[in-house]
Amino acid sequence: MTRRENRVGYLLALPAILGFLVFYGLPFVLAVWNSFTLGAGGTLFIGLENYRRIWGNTLFQLAAGNTALFMGTGIPAILVLSLLFALLLHKKFKGSRFVKLAFLFPMVVPAAATVMTLRIYLNGRTPGMALLVVLYIWKNIGFDIVLLLAGLTMIPGEYYESARLDGAGRWQSFCYITLPLLLPMLFLTFIISVLNAFKSFREAFLLAGEQPADNIYMLQHFMNSNFQNLNYPRLCVAAISCFLVIFVILAVMYGGWRLREKGGGRNE
Question: Given a cut of 70, is residue 87 above it in pLDDT?
């Protein structure tokens, strides 16, 4: 590419870059600053005192523990189920298109309609963590299946034919062909599943209100309470903590992926 083409590309990308910096970058920097200050104005710098107080807070620990339990059960479950259904739907059969549409249907159902239906079903009973995990899987599994189906479609069929000629069975083909070649798409699906998990707390908020039972008290409830109380430093600390958790999880996964690629390259 010439320098002129590079300049044109930068100019075309400039509005998106500026929009990202103004609407995402600047608020993030302000949130980081407020997390180290005291008061709504952010004028008194107190260092890590807010983090020490919040991380030692009983309600924050309860919310963080419930959130970790939610993600620790929901994300592995949705990844395994998405992979199983993607493998089944990858094989053409009568009614496969209808089944695919059925998995995508929950994505277009408004959360309010789902919550109203569940309230009728619960009939005043307190929702539990299992219900929130089921809602998360039901709402997001369709998109994960679409991603994994795209990954399965990109695997050449000649690999499986060669494996069958060499006497490999279905399990061997899955372990040595499907799974290794599907890992990049699985990694992308994992990232999206983590991000969607942090977006799934609205169901808990709509089902149980601002003050839910202890077993479904999530980080969203903690942050919402501090927002209503105008306690912005506590709110910023909770938000930054969520960001750090997401960043560490993705960094560890990406580091493992890079190590695997380097190891595979050396073996070749």
Answer: yes
CA distance 115 to 98: 25
pLDDT at 158 over 90: no
| pTM given for the model | 0.80
- Distance, in Å, from the CA atom of 128 to the CA atom of 132, rounded to the nearest integer, reads 7
Per-residue model confidence (pLDDT) at position 213: 81
Calculate Rg over the CA atoms of the chain: 23
Position 116 confidence tier, pLDDT thresholds 50, 70, 90: confident
Count of domains forming the chain? 2
- Residue 251 located in a structural domain: no
What DSSP assignment string belongs to 191-257? Answer: HHHHHHHHTTHHHHHHHH-SS--GGG--HHHHHHHHHHTT-HHHHHHHHHHHHHHHHHHHHHHHHHH
Inter-axis angle of helices 219-228 and 58-90, nearest 10: 130
Give yes or no: residues 17 and 93 share one domain.
Answer: no
Cα torsion for 110, 114, 116, 120, to the nearest 10°? 160
How many Cα atoms sit within 13 Å of 213 on the Cβ side?
10
Residue 157, domain member (yes or no): yes
Domain boundaries, position 21: 1-25
Q: What is the CATH number of the domain that holds 160?
A: 1.10.3720.10
Q: Is residue 40 part of a domain?
A: no
Q: Is 198 part of a structural domain of the chain? A: yes
Residue 264 has pLDDT above 80, yes or no: no
pLDDT in tens, 19-31: 988 988 898 898 8
Q: Which helix (H) or strand (E) holds 47?
A: none
pLDDT at 265: 53
- Does 112 lie in the same domain as 174? yes
Residues facing 116 on adjacent strands? none
